[in-house]
Write a structure and sequence with these properties.
This protein is mainly alpha-helical and 130 residues long. The chain has a domain of 78 residues.
């Protein structure tokens, strides 16, 4: 059975990548390595490792590009390459800024509002109820 050969991604500016599996394998391995810079308790690291390991496993077991795209279900392999490259930039940013740290993990940052004075609202003279 002959394998499908993609001629176009159908996305302007996104060329077909004939070595997508190899590129993705390299990117996913690098992603897993870079995630080590973030503490294992960080939710971001946990989810990214889960997603990356799943995708890496798919491309290791499957050679058919269409089946890879259908199984991962996150776009064409060329888009997956772009996503993986972008994620490496996000990992670097998260690691450098320690964005995974909150003072209280159960309490998101809150905005503080000025209190409203008790006499701020005076009833109208025309209001019979007020």
């Amino acid at each position: 059975m002959s394998q499908f050969i993609k001629k176009s991604t159908g996305i302007t500016g996104l060329a077909v990548q004939p070595h997508a599996r190899r590129i993705l394998a390299d990117l996913y391995q690098k992603t897993l390595k870079e995630l080590q810079r973030i503490p294992p308790t960080a939710f971001y690291r946990q989810k990214m490792e889960e997603i990356t390991k799943f995708r890496y496993d798919v491309i290791q077991k499957e050679t058919d590009i269409l089946k890879i795209e259908q199984t991962i279900f996150a776009g064409q392999v060329e888009e997956l390459i772009t996503q993986a490259e972008n994620e490496l930039q996000v990992i670097d940013l998260v690691a450098k800024t320690k964005a995974y740290e909150l003072s209280d993990k159960n309490k998101p940052p809150m905005m503080r509002h000025q209190s409203i004075k008790a006499n701020h609202h005076k009833p109208s003279k025309n209001n019979k109820n007020g």
